[in-house]
From TrEMBL:
Source organism per UniProt: Emergencia timonensis
Cell compartments where the protein resides: Membrane
Membrane topology note: Multi-pass membrane protein
UniProt xrefs under PANTHER family: V-TYPE PROTON ATPASE SUBUNIT A, VACUOLAR PROTON ATPASES
Chain ranges passing through the membrane: 360-387, 399-421, 453-471, 483-503, 515-532, 564-582, 588-616
Family classification: Belongs to the V-ATPase 116 kDa subunit family.
Pfam family, one: V_ATPase_I
InterPro entries: V-ATPase_116kDa_su
Any single GO CC term annotated in Swiss-Prot or TrEMBL for this entry: proton-transporting V-type ATPase, V0 domain
Gene Ontology terms: biological process: vacuolar acidification
DNA-binding among keywords: no
Protein name as annotated: V-type ATP synthase subunit I
Keywords associated with the record: Coiled coil, Ion transport, Membrane, Transmembrane, Transmembrane helix, Transport
Principal localisation: membrane
């Protein structure tokens, strides 16, 4: 990665920015801080860009986005399993945008219909509130607009359900002959009352009622009885909902407009990003200054572009304190496994990209843990179909392609272990045809010999850890720390290999025992004598013991690989139990149907739960046991200035339009 500084004439700035966006190979950095940190720039230049224009474009983008969301919401079209960008040639994209004014008219129409729906729904909500308010008064048979006669007042209201209506009636009737209090309805919270009083008693009766929590229920603008109004409101709700449904159907018929609107959305994003990036530049009256990061393989493209526009430019290597972006570069087989690295954290710029080192082990560990060739075929075939049918990009593509490779690994290890949907074909042959068949494992069956798989799991674990240690040694040697590589890394090779030969070598050959002992002792001696070399005082003495104590950490890491045995056995045992349950109904058509049912349900569950387990634990072995030996994370992803479209993939851009 190289840092490039560019100074050019303001007359070519717009064209150069467009060209840089087309190329998509430079991450332009923000120069704003130079105005405050560098005295030269305080009087020389100002920050470029137009924030008001960016804000205006953002507002337009939001409006177009709302139109697209409205179309999606009311569309009757079936949503695809994976949403991908639509491949489109640049000429076709430009031609579509020639009808931009018409598309803006379509957007206005869609948003107008959307506003209609919101207003109609607000009206429905208001009517439902009116309906809820009037429902308890249905049996009240006086017109709601009548609230008084010549001599009386008619009051409708509510009191809490805890009020004793009889006592309340007695209280308001004391000393008054003409007071009528009648309960119309009640629910869990309220009692609905009609209170008729003489006009002279109105104020006194209301004072008493308020002491009991009375609240008036006015029905302003309601004409006729509660029952009549209820029927009217129900009818109005139905009519409004019908109008709302008609508008929704009208929007669904406009779905074909989506493709043109998507083009406008992406064009607005391009224009916004092009304007926004200017805010990272500095300018004087006639010139501009930009800086950015360029990958070394792309320098030739950038050189040609800057030379064409007669810019003055210079490259430099990253310096201490620079925030250098990280661009990982791997071959097509390793590339999908970058998703595992990205889920953890990208490597530091000065660190090592671990993807090419762990990709093989990740697929291998996944296959051992799932350990069934039938499941591997299902995973690989499903991923293959998805990759063929959908133009996936980014993380989704990486994950699906990675699982495809993991499926192939599972087929291999399943065949080696003799697992084909457990022992389904053997069981099916016996249940359906009454015949005994065998499908031998190409290597061995872990259910019959779990100790053997445990030993091999630990061996694979040691190799995996040794690779991580080797990468660490390589990093130290690259930094010129040869002694650190010998004392802190290679000494552990002697200890671990020596201990393994000393303690377990007799099972292979007695000749391995004594050399193993000497190797282990030599490695331990190196650790004891050199472990405190970088410490002071008493630390130099005890530092060696501290280093040697790390044997517990290494032992823990190696034993972690026993999970390969645990998950591999779990998959095989559950598969066999599913097949056994399916065979309990015996032979014949009924037995075959039961076996088939158990096969579909049981193996789907087993595949899902153990594939998830294999994914999680394979990742864990990389993150904890492998990365822990050397990995330096914290890198920021290289984010070049390019056409960051959401809906359309311009297929003839320089990068193929792919993200």
């Amino acid at each position: 990665m190289k840092k490039v500084a560019v100074i050019g004439l303001d007359t070519v700035k717009e064209k150069l920015i467009s060209e840089l966006m087309e190329a998509g190979v430079m991450q332009i950095t923000d120069q704003g801080q130079r105005l405050t940190e560098e005295e030269t720039w305080k009087d020389l230049g100002v920050k470029d860009g137009d924030d008001n224009k960016v804000t205006s474009l953002d507002a337009q983008i939001n409006r177009v986005s709302l139109a697209l969301e409205t179309l999606e919401k009311y569309s009757t079209a079936k949503s695809p399993l994976f949403k991908t960008r639509r491949a489109m040639k640049k000429a076709e994209f430009t031609k579509t945008l020639e009808g931009r004014e018409q598309i803006y008219g379509d957007i206005d129409h869609i948003l107008g219909l959307n506003d209609q729906i919101h207003k109609l729904r607000e009206l429905v909500n208001k009517k439902n509130a009116d309906l809820s308010a009037i429902n308890p008064w249905v049996i009240y048979d006086l017109p709601l607009e009548i609230d008084e006669t010549r001599y009386t007042n008619i009051n409708l209201g509510v009191v809490p359900s805890t009020v004793d209506v009889e006592k309340l009636t007695m209280r308001v009737s004391e000393g008054r002959e003409a007071v009528e209090l009648r309960e119309i309805d009640r629910d869990r919270d309220l009692i609905y009352l009609v209170v008729i009083t003489m006009k002279d008693d109105q104020e006194a009766v209301m004072t008493i009622l308020k002491q009991y929590g009375y609240t008036p229920t006015p029905f302003k603008d309601f004409v006729g009885t509660a029952a009549v109004n209820r029927e009217r409101i129900i009818k109005e709700i139905q009519e409004t909902e019908s109008r709302c449904s008609q508008v929704e159907k009208e929007i669904s018929t406009l779905y074909k407009m989506k493709y043109g609107i998507e083009c406008v959305y992406d064009q607005l994003v391009i224009e916004r990003d092009r304007e926004k990036v200017k805010g990272r530049l500095l300018k004087t009256k006639r010139t501009f200054n930009l800086e950015g990061w360029v990958p070394e393989p792309a320098m030739e493209v950038v050189d040609k572009m800057l030379t064409e526009y007669q810019c003055c430019f210079a490259y430099r290597d990253p310096e201490e304190g620079d925030e250098v972006p990280v661009l990982t570069q791997n071959n097509s087989v390793v590339y999908p496994f970058e998703s595992i690295t990205e889920m953890y954290s990208l490597p530091d710029y000065k660190g090592v990209d671990p993807t090419k080192y762990f990709a093989f082990f990740y697929a291998m560990f996944f296959g051992i843990m799932l350990s069934d060739a039938g499941y591997g075929i299902v995973i690989a075939l499903a991923c293959f179909i998805v990759l063929r049918k959908f133009a996936l990009e980014g993380m989704t593509y990486k994950m699906i392609k990675m699982f495809f490779y993991c499926g192939l690994s599972t087929i291999l290890w399943g065949a080696l272990f003799g697992g084909w949907f457990g022992d389904f074909f053997q069981v099916a042959a016996k249940v359906i045809f009454g015949k005994e068949i065998t499908i031998p494992a190409l290597w061995f069956n872990p259910i019959d010999d779990p100790t053997r798989l445990l030993i091999w799991s630990l061996v694979f674990g040691v190799i995996h850890i040794f690779l991580g240690m080797a990468i660490k040694a390589g990093m130290l040697i690259k930094e010129g720390k040869w002694l650190d590589a010998v004392f802190d890394v290679f000494s552990w090779y002697l200890v671990i290999l020596g201990a393994a030969m000393w303690l377990g070598g007799s099972s292979i050959s007695e000749a391995l025992v004594k050399p193993g002992m000497y190797m282990a002792i030599a490695g331990a001696a190196i650790l004891l004598l050199t472990g405190g070399r970088n410490k002071k005082g008493f630390g130099k003495v005890i530092g060696g013991f501290s280093s040697l104590y790390d044997i517990t950490s290494y032992l823990s890491d190696i034993l972690s690989y026993a999970r390969l045995l645990a998950l591999g056995l779990a998959t095989g045992v559950i598969a066999q139990v599913v097949n056994l349950m399916g065979s309990l109904a015996g032979g014949g058509i009924a037995g075959a149907l039961v076996l088939l049912f158990a096969f579909i349900i049981g193996h789907t569950f087993n595949l899902a739960i153990n594939a998830l387990g294999a994914f999680v634990h394979s990742s864990r072995l990389q993150y904890i046991e492998f990365f822990g030996k050397f990995y330096e994370d914290g890198g920021e992803e290289f984010d070049p200035f390019r056409k960051n479209t959401k809906y359309v993939r311009l297929t003839n851009d320089t990068d193929g339009g792919k993200k």
